[in-house]
Amino acid sequence: MAKNNKVKSTNDLELQDRLVAINRVTKVTKGGRAFSFAAIVVVGNGDGVIGWGLGKANEVTAAIAKGVETAKKNLIKVPVHKGTIPHEVAAKFGGSRIFLKPASEGTGVKAGGAMRAVLESVGVTDVLAKSKGSSNPHNLVKATIAALDELRSPAQVAQNRGVSVEKVFNGK
After folding, report:
1. What would the DSSP string read from start to end of the chain?
2. Which of 72, 140, 159, 167 is paired with 133 by a 20 to 30 Å CA distance?
3. Model's pTM, two decimal places?
4. Cβ-count burial of 58 within 10 angstroms (0-12 exposed, 13-18 middle, 19+ buried)?
């Protein structure tokens, strides 16, 4: 149920890149082994914009640079409310299943590895996260971004229901 949360322009965004994982891959040829690198990178502005990218090259720095360029091409906007997410959300990608739950102020980012990198890059400061199944960084990053893409702000919920934001919270 992916919505259209795509960010139109990256010109005015102050994006910080973060390396999630680097993988050395080997191709065995007649002449010996050929090594190359695959890097998965997330970029975010710390204020609700996030993207991920995969770069492959013969050198680590080139792979990271390619990953950053790819990440800047598929940015999404995420509703972050007072440093946390607006509601619980679960997502799956490949063998990775994740669950995100809003947390009170001062809790911190209770997530590990790849999920932590994504959540901190998007600007979430308080969240509870759980991953089940595969801990493959590629699938974890993709599942986390899929979960963040499913989030709806209270204003969006109110607009879809045709009521005020106060009525969404109070239910009266």
Report:
1. -----B-S--TT---EEEEEEEEEEEEEETTEEEEEEEEEEEEE-SSSEEEEEEEEESSHHHHHHHHHHHHHHS-EE---BTTB-SS-EEEEETTEEEEEEE--TT--EE--HHHHHHHHHHT--SEEEEEEE---HHHHHHHHHHHHHH---HHHHHHHHTS-HHHHHH--
2. 72
3. 0.87
4. exposed
pLDDT in tens, 84-116: 998 899 999 999 999 999 999 999 999 988 999
CA angle 120, 91, 137 (to 5 degrees): 55
Residue 18 in contact with residue 64, Cβ under 8 Å? no
pLDDT band at 172 (very low <50, low <70, confident <90, very high): low
Can you give the length of the chain in residues? 172
